[in-house]
Amino acid sequence: MNQRILARTHLFVLLATLCVPMTAVAGTANSTAVKQWESYCGHIQDELQRAVQTPDHFLWIDQSPERESAVQAGSILVAPLHNRGTIAVQSGIIHHWVGAVFLRGTTAAQLLQSVQDYGNYSNIYSPAVTKSRVLTRSGDEFTYALTIVSKAWNIRTGLRGEFRSRFVSVGNGIGYSTTQSTKLRELEDPDGPHEQDIAPEQDHGYVQRIFTVVRFREEKAGIFAEVESLTLSRDIPSAVRWIAGPIIERISREAMAATLEKLSAQLQPLSAGNRTVIKERDRFTRSFR
Fold first, then answer.
1. pLDDT tens-digit series, residues 221-251
2. What DSSP letter does each residue of 256-282 carry, written as one string?
3. What are the counts of helices (DSSP H) followed by strands (DSSP E) for the chain?
């Protein structure tokens, strides 16, 4: 498989699973795929609003006592949602993953302070995020800019974007956030002397849409935090799908785990590097093709 394709695959998975809730646009997406993507994300948002009405079942881990016990014991739980984390749409693939962590002794206020510290993301999520700055804030809505660079197989790939985040407090220590991008550009020579944006009509379409929801619930001993990420990418040619599929799955798991480890290290420095990552197998299937 072409190393440049692998490197860009690594980048879009990294972007999707950073603890930066976002909806992103890059490349030219198939119109049918976009409609299927919007339908799928609409379903996720409907599920979110229903979950808000049942606080005891607000989180993904609430579906299974084993999940909650594992996370509360200090593990990071990562899993694909629906068909090993991939859903086929017209000329594209939706990648759907979730991860959970329990931050003992941490409050909702402390979690929000960390997640909303966008200007410091280049330090918190280094080396993936190389530049970060807050553009505006109005109440619980933020706009900010990030440059994200990935190096894999000795090839650098990068994206530059501007995003708008919205945080919602449900009450009693429960809340969530969602984010939409207002601009996203693939980079030529990222983090190099000739770094520049690639025109939308000329980029590779490896990141066409991303939607991420961060949910949290504060309890007496600490706070449960979850990151659910969805990404729409271009389709994988059938000739290399058998190679690319397992690679994407592995990178997805590792990137989600790394994101939650970074968040944990930011809020609980003594836990850095000491958490076990549990990889739960997929239990559901869904296809829109």
1. 999 999 998 888 777 766 666 666 666 677 7
2. HHHHHHHHHHHH-GGGTT-PPEEEPPP
3. 6, 11
Q: CATH topology for 3-279? A: Alpha-D-Glucose-1,6-Bisphosphate; Chain A, domain 4 (3.30.530)
Rg, the chain, Cα only = 18
> Using an 8 Å Cβ cutoff, are 240 and 40 in contact?
no
Strands 76-80 and 277-279: parallel
Q: How many CB atoms lie within 10 A of CB 269?
A: 8
CA dihedral 250, 256, 259, 264 (to 10 degrees): -110
Any idea where the domains of the chain sit in the sequence? 3-279
d(CA 52, CA 44): 13
Measured between alpha carbons, how far is residue 35 from residues 84, 87, 213, 288 in Å? Answer: 22, 14, 20, 10
Residue 118 DSSP code: G
Tens digits of residue pLDDT in 111-168: 999 999 999 999 998 888 899 999 999 999 999 999 988 776 666 778 888 888 999 9
pTM for the whole thing?
0.81
